[in-house]
Amino acid sequence: xxxxxxxxxxxxxxxxxxxxxxxxxxxxxxxxxxxxxxxxxxxxxxxxxxxxxxxxxxxxxxxxxxxxxxxxxxxxxxxxxxxxxxxxxxxxxxxxxxxxxxxxxxxxxxxxxxxxxxxxxxxxxxxxxxxxxxxxxxxxxxxxxxxxxxxxxxxxxxxxxxxxxxxxxxxxxxxxxxxxxxxxxxxxxxxxxxxxxxxxxxxxxxxxxxxxxxxxxxxxxxxxxxxxxxxxxxxxxxxxxxxxxxxxxxxxxxxxxxxxxxxxxxxxxxxxxxxxxxxxxxxxxxxxxxxxxxxxxxxxxxxxxxxxxxxxxxxxxxxxxxxxxxxxxxxxxxxxxxxxxxxxxxxxxxxxxxxxxxxxxxxxxxxxxxxxxxxxxxxxxxxxxxxxxxxxxxxxxxxxxxxxxxxxxxxxxxxxxxxxxxxxxxxxxxxxxxxxxxxxxxxxxxxxxxxxxxxxxxxxxxxxxxxxxxxxxxxxxxxxx
Length: 481
Ligand SMILES: Cc1ncc(COP(=O)(O)O)c(C=O)c1O
Fold this sequence. Notes:
The protein is of the alpha/beta class. It has helices at 6-9, 12-35, 48-54, 66-76, 95-107, 118-135, 149-164, 169-172, 188-196, 217-229, 252-262, 299-302, 356-366, 368-390, 417-431, 458-477, and strands at residues 142-146, 178-183, 204-207, 233-240, 265-270, 294-298, 310-314, 395-397, 405-410, 437-441, 444-450.
């Protein structure tokens, strides 16, 4: 290991020179993803053991060639900028957002309290005000940015527990079994949140979705009755906007009315779909969102931000304080301060990076319409993909998609369709021309795609379908069914 002085490590010249090299490598990478991407694999290798062996111990020196290491990291990463990446709901980050993230990490200001990062806390506040306004909340709303939708859902449900249980759970602990109603198609983090909250294994009561993978009023009533039968007090209903697996948007108005009737907290998990409010063409999918008590909105999904950046917004600002009610004299004085000056009174994180800066910057830099057109484009592509799947008798859709998540399967007259879909998915990922995933919906295995890349075109989707057809045909020849 070479001996490096602090002055060398913090040298502005070295920083400029080294960063420029990293920027050059990333720019070349970006260019290759736009020009000759069809000759490049989306995922270089699925041999996890060999990848592990590529990574030496953190104490082994680069021997003055850290550049090769950075290039290796680029090469072995999942290539989200590749237009044939059509897998999970991970954003294709806007290059400028990543550049601004460097400013955040370089300055390393926390947004816990205003003194630790004054302008960063102010920006977070402005970003949350914008989210609240887009959702349709009034002036007395409020919230914060935190690390991810899973954590955001937990925070909102903790607030629901405090407000709707009828006693001071934070101080006295749970006195009576509680329950949260949530669709059987929701993201797993909701159930995880209820277990973390001490509601137990049956604390999240599944609302049975219908054939279209959506919740109905009747199903809501049934799950409410089920909770009562189990002597559980229902505190909240979670409406998915949209459900992760099938990508279906719940009718939020039905859930809002139900919550009003039963005096329940209405939480919208809009990790994927809340930003759809920006789109004139598709915002009807989010009708009713403004009636929610709380909404989670991920910028690192449908807003093209690098991970993580999640808005957690409450219709009533006072409720944003309900999840955690602690006193920390080394951070907060007893003097009354404006709430934006002590964001960490409301967040799980203490030290919290300036996560909102990239989103705030890009909104100002590119404008709201840019993001609306991204949603329109990816949702239009979802519809187009569904169209060509429907017209092809070799395939079957799980459900007609409402957005950019499309689930379907290859049909075969013999053998187990589920095994075949899994084998197709594995082979497609191994071959590396495309990246897709699979999921189980109502006991059937489907191939699952999410169109996240604004450079994924109709042509890409046509090619994907014929690639899957070819892979499936070959697998069948090998007797894998
Ligand atoms: C509807 C929904 N909620 C929550 C999450 C989890 O969000 P995060 O990955 O930001 O924790 C996801 C992730 O896919 C999701 O689709």
